[in-house]
Design a protein that fits this description.
The complex is a heterodimer of chains A (about 110) and B (about 120). With about 110 residues, chain A is mainly beta. Chain A contains no helices and eleven strands. In chain A, a hairpin with a 6-residue loop joins strand 4 and strand 5. The radius of gyration of chain A is 13 Å and the shape is globular. Chain B is mainly beta and about 120 residues long. Chain B contains no helices and eleven strands. In chain B, the strands form two sheets. In chain B, strands 2, 4, 5, 6, 9, 10 and 11 form a seven-stranded mixed sheet that branches. The chains are: A mainly beta (about 110), B mainly beta (about 120). Chains A and B meet through strand 4, strand 5, strand 9 and strand 10 of A and strand 5, strand 9 and strand 10 of B.
């Protein structure tokens, strides 16, 4: 079955810098990959979807890349702000229409 | 307002006492699913449903039941709760395209369950 590994449990960066989060999958290349943001005690909120035939997707200060050779997706937040502090989840479709979530990376943007 | 509503948001119960967590969505979505979230383990799928009367097991279905009699509702049933089912539960839904499920998931606010 598909497994997802997100690079680190916690990432601290300085305000204004670019945060880069990594999502690695272990088996087959998924048809798409999604990124979600989750605040403590709240449900995840969808941010971006990137398909296997897309190299890059952007939305405002967010950018996602998808490298099927490396089996990796990178999630970037440029000009980061303290309000960007949250846990970010990577999600891919697994087998039989299930969805597989990474355990998340907790991002803290320091003022 | 488009939303997924779960109830109850918080519940403390005792081992063996049957309980149901309700989930309702107002977006006419075909796909609905239940997840549990535990520290260090992330979100794990319990059950999902592609449409009315169509349900399937996720990664951790043991101890849970679901039903999908109406499109908008997808209740999660714990027939005989045990302490290892203490967790934060999320319901989610999405519409489906002709190529299958690929849309964004809309999550409920979560139901924090404690089984003593």
């Amino acid at each position: 079955s598909q497994k997802i590994e997100q690079n680190s449990e916690a990432l601290n960066i300085q305000e204004g810098k670019t945060a880069t989060l990594t999502c690695n999958y272990t088996n087959y290349s998924p048809a798409y990959l999604q990124w979600y943001r989750q605040d403590p005690g709240r449900g995840p909120v969808f941010l971006l979807l990137i398909r296997e035939n897309e190299k890059e997707k952007r939305k405002e200060r967010l950018k996602v890349t998808f490298d099927t050779t490396l089996k990796q997706s990178l999630f970037h937040i440029t000009a980061s702000q303290p309000a960007d502090s949250a846990t970010y989840l990577c999600v891919t479709p697994g087998s039989a229409r299930q969805l597989t979530f990474g355990s998340g990376t907790q991002l803290t943007v320091l003022p | 307002e488009a939303q997924v509503t779960q109830n109850p948001r918080y519940l403390i119960t005792v081992t063996g006492k049957k309980l149901t967590v309700t989930c309702s969505q107002n977006m006419n979505h075909e796909y609905m699913s239940w997840y549990r979230q535990d520290p260090g383990l992330g979100l794990r799928q319990i059950y999902y449903s592609m449409n009315v009367e169509v349900t399937d097991k996720g990664d951790v279905p043991e101890g849970y039941k679901v039903s999908r009699k109406e499109k908008r509702n997808f209740p999660l049933i714990l027939e005989s709760p045990s302490p290892n089912q203490t967790s934060l539960y999320f319901c989610a839904s999405t519409g489906t395209s002709g190529r299958g499920h690929s849309g964004e998931l809309f999550f409920g606010e979560g139901s924090r369950l404690t089984v003593l």
